[in-house]
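Hi everyone,

Forwarding the result from last night's run.
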Amino acid sequence: MRKLALLIMLAAAPLSMAQSLEFGLWAGGPNLSVGPTVNLSYPAGDWTLDAWLRAYMPNTDEISFGLGAKRAFEAGPAGRGELGLKGFIGMDAHYWLEAYGSAVLGKGALEASLGHTYNRTPSHFWPLQGETLGTYGRLAGKYRLTRELTLQSSLYLYEGGGQAEAALSWRAGQQTFTLGAGGVDRASNAYAILGYKTPYEHAVVAAMLRLGAFNDLRLDYADRAYKAHLTLAYPASAQVGVAWDRWAVDAKVDDRGYELYLRYTLPLEEL
C-alpha cells in the first residue's frame, strides 16, 4: 500500500497544470482484479504531455506508471501530422515502449507505430491496449483516388506472425461500400472484407465484416451525443463500448477472461 500511496502522490503533483484529468475504474479476470486509473493530459503549444497511473488490487506489485509526449506539426497548406512517444514501467520491472506518428498530406493519410513490451502485454499497463508480447509494428494508409474511390491498406507485424489487409471503398450517394481482402500469418490464411456505412437520421451507422481465416463483425454508431461500437469475433470473443458526454465504458470477454473499464474525463479549467 505504501507503493500505491507514493505513486498517487507523484501523479497528483502536476494537477494544477493539467488541462484534463481522466479517472477510470477497471475490473478483470478470470481471477478478479480491480484497480483505478488516472490520466493527466497537459497541452503546451504544439506539444501534449501525458502521465498515466494504473493500480491493481489486491496485488499492488502490479502497479504501472507511464509518461508520454506528442507534438503536432504542419506540412504545408494541405498537410498536418503528429509524432509521439510513450513509455510505461511496472513495479515488477516489466515495461512497454511505443513510438507513433500520423500524417495527412493532400489526398493521402498515413499512421505508423513501433513498440516493444517486456514480460507483460500492453493491456496490462493500460486497459484494452492489446495482447502483443515482444516487438511489434503497425502501418496503415489511405489514398483518395477520386471523390468516390478510396484505397486503404494496413500491415501489423509481431513476433511469430502478422496480418495484412487491402480494401477499396466507393461512395454511392450518401452510402459507402467497402470490398477487400486480408491474410493472417501466411498467404493461405486469407479472408474477405465487406463494409457498409450510411447516414441514419442524425447519426452515422457502419458495419465491417471479415470472413474466412479471420472472422469478426464490427458495428458502429455515432451522433452528436453518443458513440457506440460492438465487435463479435470467432473464436468466441466480444467487445462493446459506449461514450457520451464526458463518460465512456468498454467491456470485453474472450477465452482469456473479461475486462470492464469505466472512465470520466474532467476538464480542470472548469474547477
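Helices lie at 2-12, 122-125.

Cheers,
N.
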